[in-house]
Amino acid sequence: MSTILYEDENHKCIKFEGLTAEGEIPSNQFLIVHNRRGLLLDCGGYRVYKTILGEMAHFLPAGSLDYIFLSHQDPDIGSGINLWLPICNAKILVSALWERFVPAFCVRGIAEGRLFPIPDQGVRFQLSDAPLMAIAAHFLHSPGNFHLYDPVAKILFTSDLGASVAAHKAVIDTDDDFRLHIENMRGFHNRYMPSNTACRNWAAMVRKLDVEMIVPQHGAHIVGKSLVETFYQWVETEKTALDDFGDELFQLPNEEVVTIL
Fold it and tell me: According to the model, what pLDDT value does residue 70 have?
């Protein structure tokens, strides 16, 4: 299904959700449209391609995509890109760290000349005449990770940061909802985000932006400036993987031999 996150005369942000089958990681994919040109954010894997293509047709033909933005290297982010490249002329924006890995998702040569490697400090660019910004989010959870900021919609797309599993609501817009929502974010955050230092540095950086909505790749999104600030405070203080598990993750297997074949 599709949800319009923001809309004005020239600009739209659309969230595609509920596309994966039971037992698979539930992911959100996103489309930004400005003056009939488009950016597809985290296009997803092979299994969601046909559904996204059908949903996207209500807003924009695939041939009008100028960019496919991959926030990092996970398969749920962009392993279906091989299906998108033949039907559009979009440039692929991805961290310079992952530039050489993207062709592993593609038939030989199809991505040649179409990759734009994002430098570590991020980059400002335009969709038609709308400004967009790739924001550094390194180690949250990938060493080459970028969030996408849309200053027209005042939305910060945060990839896996703020991801929730089995959220009690699709939109978190009250303090009470946020308190309940913390439990839905905590398990993912505590295991997949390795560094509280990275979390604090990220929060200090993004506070300089005018953000009214936090939209992660998994689960519910957070709406309202006060809750955006509450989210930043939670990110700064919540335990991360190395805080939570420490040396518990670094132990040899027990002596039991498990039959696999």
Answer: 96
Task: Count how many Cα atoms sit within 13 Å of the Cα of residue 61 in the half-sphere of its side chain.
Answer: 5
Query: Rounded to an integer, what distance in angstroms lies between the CA atom of residue 212 and that of residue 209?
Result: 10
More confident residue, 235 or 242: 235
For the cut 90, the answer to whether the pLDDT of residue 201 exceeds it is: yes
Q: Which residue has the tokens 């749920």?
A: 76
Which domains, ranges and CATH numbers included, belong to the chain? 2-246 (3.60.15.10)
**Beta-sheet strand order (sheet of 221-223):** 123-127, 130-136, 146-150, 155-157, 213-215, 221-223, 171-172
CA 42 to chain centre: 6
- Is pTM, for the whole model, over 0.90? yes
Q: Please give the Cα distance from 31 to 9 (Å, whole number).
A: 16
Say whether pLDDT at 164 is over 90. yes
Beta-bridged to residue 94, according to DSSP, are 117
Do residues 84 and 90 lie in contact, with contact meaning Cβ atoms separated by under 8 Å?
Answer: yes
**Which sign, positive or negative, has the C-alpha torsion 10, 11, 15, 19?**
positive
Q: How far apart are CA 24 and CA 81, in angstroms?
A: 19
Give the count of beta carbons closer than 10 Å to the beta carbon of residue 67.
20
Q: Tell me how many degrees the CA angle 84-135-121 measures, rounded to the nearest 5.
A: 110
DSSP character at residue 170: S
How does DSSP classify residue 202? Answer: H
Please tell me whether the peptide bond between 141 and the residue prior to it is cis, using omega within 30 degrees of 0: yes
Helices 225-237 and 196-206 cross at an angle (nearest 10°) of 150
